[in-house]
Amino acid sequence: MRFLMSKRLSLWCGAAWLAMPLSAVADPGDAAIPPVVSRHQIPLDGKSLAYLAEAGLIPIRDAETAAVQAQMFYTSYRAESAKGPRPVTFLWGGGPGGSSMIMNYTLAGPVLAIGGSPGKTVPNANTLLRDTDLVFVDQVGAGWSRVADRKFSKGFDSTIGDTDSFAEFIRVWRIRHDAVDRPVVVGGVSWGAPRAATVAYALLERGIPVEGVIMASGESSINRDYIDPSLFEAMRVPGMAEIAFRWQKLSPALGEDIAKIKAEATTWAQTVYFPALNRVAELTPAERDEVVAGLSRYVGLSPLFIDRTTLRILPRRYAQDLLRPEGKKLSGADLRVTEIKPSGWQTPALKSVREDLGWKTDLPYIFENEDYAEGFVPFRNYPEAIGDRWDFATSPSDPAQVKTIMEAYRERGGRPPTIGKPLPATEEAVDLNPGIRFLIIIDRFDGESTCESNAVLQRALPEKLKRALDFRCYEAGHTFWRTPGMAAQFRQDVHDMIGGMSLTSPASRP
User: Fold this and answer.
1) What's the pTM value of the predicted model, to 2 decimals?
2) N or C: which terminal CB in the chain sees fewer CB atoms within 10 Å?
């Protein structure tokens, strides 16, 4: 298989560290599109960081027939190291249906895409390439990843198929790049965070070493209840109190000391609200009135917007109702604002991949559950958005029950629904590799607002999980890198996680 290389790269191939293979292994089942490799460098800390960029496709093949069912697009960046083999970190976006471009060009890659007229790219001082090689991969149906035939879509548009396709991508990429002895880190943002946990387990179960997991803005994927779920729900109140305080929705009687207000809200949530949620069906009208009044006091909602039957405040409804009297609603991604304005980073990002990395394609790039109107679709029969057709079931489930769960999920907003027995994830991965390290980022101003909830959960975990899991609460919204200083914090936290990893393969099954 030949490569399309820049002239600069061919002149550079004599460098000793380029002994690492640059090519993928030719295979008769592959699409006839070779990856493209190019040489780049960016300034960092007064020095120059040189790296190889690669853009290409990895086939996902039926293990029995070798037939290609899909191609998964990736961009990778590999840098020189004088300290031996570097970890390889595989990163992806959210969704379901989100591409990896946002992780690549707005947070972790070597360059950042800046919107405006005209858009441009600039070196990323906080790139994770400082500590680890990077591979950004698009899920099937997003970005430039596609199924080979429409009949295969159903197999990928599901939590199970999604996990297995990412695990297969990593298995094949490591073989093709002679990286089977390199420590593996996996990570994602939003929906991509729970995917990281299930993929980590799937890889470890297959004997592939995973030493680190990055779960950003997507909770912890711990399948066991170490605290009462109602307590986890109740402890969202202090976070909502802070949001209400910012929007001047709390009574002046509570004062102006937000730390004191949150402490008072925490005590109320633990001693009044939590017990009430556990016996909500038995509450008298007077008790129900007391809880509604307390919720209104600490979360800033009018009693008219509080469900007197469940006494629970759904994330989607909180964002819609807090400023409803003013005819406004909050952004579910960042409760500090009413809207998040698009930054226009997508255009310079695509230009960079096509021109700087040399991936010459006219196929439409699907950023996140967007339609295909830019390209050709027979009879304009556009496919349903991935997130709308997604199969969340992870074990056989009653269709009527699935419908009920999905309706509740869409009403609630926030984290994905659980349908059936959950896939092995965080705790199960720790069981397979006790030395694995998880970086779990929770955003204070995300629509779920669960920093305090996860703090209570963390204190209740068994020692094996306390050692493996590092919870961090960022003073930011769902896309935390939009908040000044948070990208640098993320880079430092990943640096610390990698520094604390055991860079030897865990024991695995034969």
Assistant:
1) 0.90
2) C
